[in-house]
Design a protein that fits this description.
With 374 residues, this protein is an alpha/beta fold. Helices cover 33% and strands 13% of the residues. The chain has nine helices and ten strands.
Length: 374
């Protein structure tokens, strides 16, 4: 979806406010392959592994990983979750994977690929994993090894699982053979930028053993990618270089984009913590504006604290092709790049449906651009 039509795409998160024209030549004219382990350059020279490591260290500091951070830039958060599941299964062949009913669909796929059983844990009305139910499941499967996939920003409502509570629960049950992977694809960076008093405990300081965040969701890389982080290199990794590449096979895909670390680096280092904190706050203000507007016209809607996501009753087909999700619950995700004028137009179309009035919409090409009143 390009040009004016992008205003209709509100149900799926992807920031579009940052662009990187300074990278245009290298993005379209240079082959860059970050094959294998980021900390091993390998035989080839057409890579950006030093940039990739800088990105990992920047995010590692944000999430409390420490100086021994390890990870890599993946093709998406699903790949990061697959790596975490595979790492846990490699370490413990009797592994059981636990995830909430609101977890991303890729968790089930990752468990299936490594042939590990998956236990689905119920959620509260907001979509958070129920720790009492998790306790029952963990007790029922003792003494098998544990991987809990905690979701920080569910696809439905942007709910945040209690990672610190999951770690405390494992401690209470005496579970030492465990992993806690945090799928923080959407909400990880925005939540980590909150003041300490408002920030949920979900990162390595809370007990996570791996964590993944998307690049295209909040950092506006405009192409799918993610960053997988471990507080240290996983035990048991084979660091022996492959004879063909000169680098260890520690990633899922082998050949990886050398361009996405450049986009991630540009987003992180050019805008810094304060710049991204402002972007997150603008999105939250727009989400609050959206919620208030829906309530004002009498349309049922909800929003969790600190979320970019507003959920609403799914409307009947509207006169213009608004993308609000494909199920009974609609979503408006106020990512950086979504403009207040677009929300106003959607509210007008919803008002038309509620009241049966005729709404003459603004033409697609005439939405105000760059509205700063978010």
């Amino acid at each position: 979806m390009t040009g004016p039509d992008r205003c209709f795409n509100l149900a799926f998160p992807g920031a579009t406010d940052l662009t990187f024209p300074q990278l245009a030549d290298v993005m379209t004219g240079t082959l860059l392959n970050n094959v294998g382990d980021p900390w091993q350059g390998g035989y080839g020279s057409n890579h950006t592994k030093s940039v990739e490591i800088a990105v990992l260290r920047w995010l590692g500091e944000l999430f409390g990983a420490g100086d021994d951070v390890w990870g890599y830039v993946t093709g998406g958060a699903s790949e990061g979750t697959l790596h975490a599941v595979d790492e846990a299964f490699t370490a413990h062949r009797d592994l059981v994977v636990y995830a909430s009913a609101a977890a991303h669909y890729s968790v089930a796929k990752a468990a299936r690929l490594v042939r590990a059983p998956l236990v689905q844990v119920g959620v509260d009305p907001d979509g958070r994993m129920l720790l009492d139910e998790l306790r029952q499941h963990l007790a029922a499967h003792r003494p098998r090894a544990v991987l809990v996939v905690a979701t920080v920003g569910t696809t439905e409502r942007e709910a945040v699982d209690d990672v610190a509570g999951i770690a405390a629960l494992c401690d209470d049950l005496g579970i030492t053979r465990r992993r806690i992977h945090v799928d923080a694809a959407l909400a990880g960076i925005p939540l980590a930028l909150l003041p300490a008093a408002d920030r949920p405990a979900f990162d390595f300081r809370a007990g996570a053993t791996s964590l993944v965040v998307s690049g295209h969701k909040f950092l506006s890389t405009l192409t799918p990618c993610a960053v997988l982080l471990y507080p240290r290199r996983p035990d048991g990794q084979d660091r022996q270089p492959i004879s063909y590449t000169g680098t260890a096979d520690t990633t899922i895909t082998g050949s990886r984009s050398g361009h996405t670390p450049l986009l991630l680096s540009a987003a992180l280092f050019q805008h810094g913590l304060d710049g991204h904190r402002r972007r997150a706050e603008q999105s939250r203000r727009l989400a609050e504006y959206t919620l208030e507007g829906l309530h004002r016209i009498g349309w049922p809607a909800q929003r969790l604290p600190q979320a970019f996501t507003v959920t609403l009753n799914q409307p009947l087909p509207l006169p213009r092709p608004w993308v609000l999700g494909g199920d009974r619950t609609g979503r408006i995700i106020c990512m950086p790049g979504v403009e207040r004028a677009w929300i106003d137009e959607l509210l007008a179309d919803l008002t038309t449906q509620l009241c049966g009035r005729v709404h003459i919409p603004v033409s697609r090409g005439s939405f105000p651009r760059g509205d700063s009143r978010r």
